[in-house]
Design brief:
The complex is a heterotrimer. Chain A is mainly alpha-helical. In chain A, about 75% of the residues lie in helices and about 5% in strands. Chain A contains eleven helices and four strands, in the order H-H-H-H-E-E-E-H-H-H-H-E-H-H-H. Chain C has helices at about 5-20, 25-50, 60-75, 80-105, 110-125, 160-180, 185-195, 195-200, 205-230, 240-255, 260-275, 285-295, 300-325. The chains are: A mainly alpha, B alpha/beta, C mainly alpha.
Amino acid sequence: MEVNWLQLIVNGIQLGAIYSLVALGLTLIFSIMNVINFAHGEIYMLGGFTGYYIYYKLLVMQLKFPNYLAYFITFIIILIVFSVLGFFLEKSIFRPFRGNLLAGLLISVGLGEIFQMGAALSFGPETKGIPPTFTGTLSLFNASLSYQRIAIIVIGALLIVCLHFFLARTKIGLAMRAISQDREAAQSLGMNYGLTSSLGFAIGCVLAGFAGILVIPASYIDPFVGGGYLMKAFIIIIIGGMGSLPGCILGGFIIGFIESFGSYFFALSTATVVSFIIVIAFLILRPRGLLGHAED
Amino acid sequence: MLELVGVTKGFGGLLAVDHVDMKINKGELVALIGPNGAGKTTLFNLISGIYHCTSGQIIFAEEEITKLSPNRIAKKGISRTFQATTLFSSMTALDNVIMGLHLHSGLAGFSSLIPNLRTRKNLSCANDKARELLNFFKMDKKSYVKSADLSNWDQKILQIVIALACEPKLILLDEPLAGMNLEEIGFTMMMINKVKELGVAILLVEHNMKAVMSYCERVIVINYGRKIAEGHPEEVRHNEDVIRAYLGAPELITES
Amino acid sequence: MPRIKQTTFGFLPAIILLILPLFSQEHYMMHIFMWVCIYFMLSTSLRFIMLVNAVNFAHAGFMGVGAYISAALVIKLGLSFWITFILGGIASAIFAIFFGFITLRLKGAYFFLVSFALCEIIRISFSSYQIKIFGGVNGLIGIPTPNPIFGLQFKVGGLPLFYLTSLITIIFTFITYLIEKCYWGKVFRCITESQSLAESVGINVTKYKLTAFVIGCFIAGIAGSLYASFNGVITPLDFTFRLSLFVLVCVVFGGREGFFGPALGVAALVAIGEAFRSFAYFEPIIWGACIIIVLLFAPQGLLGFMDRILVPVIWKFGKSIKRENNI
């Protein structure tokens, strides 16, 4: 049995891209609003279901749109709907608790429960899957790489780059970075905290939603996947570094590779155990993560 | 008594404090002045242990304290106030001072968990001592007011009371006169002078030049993290480098 | 404007706890009452840890450590419950010393995240089939109830077992009450309000944080041992972060300011849980909605609601009645 290294590596990169997107959204929300969004996994899940119902059921099957167009349109729809959702959630529910870690956390837990059960009741608890958007495989060095997976990597990388430019070059992006460094100082400099928070939350939701729709043509969706992704996001944040966006990406790819190689050579559960052992090691040796700055 | 040798602190590429040498002697009242952002509070944070020096040494009472944690430095005899008024806001003024007495009230150990006679005695001693201290600062009547409800002036004074309660040999005061009117300034500086007369050395960061010039025996000037002048207030006032540093902020120079 | 006197009304929860069996001695209800004791212990000890500004999301994990160590000692070594339940607590405490020493210096949210990771690590460790003692995914079964003493038999669902559990609960939570009331409670509050000021007056923050954490986890371990003996069966899934979450919600829902806030929270959430039991699928939605509504309108929890709104309203109402009668 030959080990197909290229396949494992590509798998690792693909998983890493998805996990990074989810973790990035979570970290962004946290660093701006000091809220650990426990509903983040459910937002990813809703993105996946949007992919299922809107992209597949509506656009492709009913309206007979070509795959690529329908996919692109669904992205746009997610961009609009999820940012509105993010804005709305931040303004109406999270705003009163800005900075209050515990309240924000519990509220997001409540939201997560509502989303999860709501999805189960509306969409049914069964697992759903759809055929890939980008069909076919690429043969490279004995490896069979599905175009869908390659697409995930490319689109994922594109999104991460866009996020980087947004944070580094735009005025609001800089405001976000300032607030995440020192909330009080940023406020006293007159930055519009309200708008920045809402936008931050919106972007976080959009990223999670995008991750959902990216994954579903290659994998499956059910109302309960959220929890697992949330957990992975937490591990990534601990390993990659608390409060560090580059750390998220680094951590995301580390976990992606562990899963890819781990589940091939051993089993998925072993891979999970390995990631946790790494977390323990980090806790003991370097609690603030690879690139983080979390100590008192 | 306090000696800084080549103390440096860098953040990323920026040197907030750049090879500063400084000496404070017993019972001195010294002012640390400089334009905003010069590195004064950073220096305080280095001395009190909140930041770690990138390089250099801090020596206090002939012991090196460079790498000690803030609470151990307090034990060695250095206490401080903070630029942004920092108090235990939900507790009364009296309780705040009692906490200031933590190291010397005999309540710091596990023994204070046991409700025996000694603990009760220690508590009531701490209570009395705290009231004495508040009395010294004429705040006795406000003992039972929640510290968050006190006026700005009272809060600033309370910070100094807490710092004094630690029985320090050196107190670092970070802008104790901020937000005060002339009368309040007069009273506060008088109290600070009284503290000095008790034998406590004081290092004071202030922008109010009149107060600095009238009370302080020595002035150290910092700009861009470096010491640019040191000496008697009158000398420093006429020092060219100092004037140039402040020309960017002439409103900070007040004629007396 | 009076506030609810902790001392006067304080012992009410303890009394209510003790008279619970008067309402029903049905097997199912007794089981619920036992759980109320456990939740009470867990939520009060969690709040105790939160007094030093640490939100311990691994609290259920520490309960699990106590449960597994106690159960394993009884089953494998044949030791008596009366020794093992303390040993379970001690095991939990030792574990807490190691974990706390490494991680308590992290800022609030980060400590929360690593404690979350720890909870999962504990669960995975107990599920692991490599460590035979803990029975892997199936857990441990056949854990006996405490050995009879003074001629009292501790049968499942019986009164003696309930009173043993509730008495242990009351004793250990009373100890945390005493600690909070004494000087140490003041120090804890200082650490939460301003850690930098606390350090600058010489408070050894690490020592106090660690002590609070260890005591809280010790009590969680005791709760675990009690649970093991009255449930007879323990599995890794009994001690997941979901339980930690429930306990945390009890604390915040009831109000983390007052000592008996968590008790209120436990009472309210258990009642809600039972009331909506028949709506199985909607239960999470109702739960989620309750959390959101309470936090939006009473962010200090039920205790805060009573203090700030209910009591003043009743006071004013009482005064206006008095005034009318005088005229």
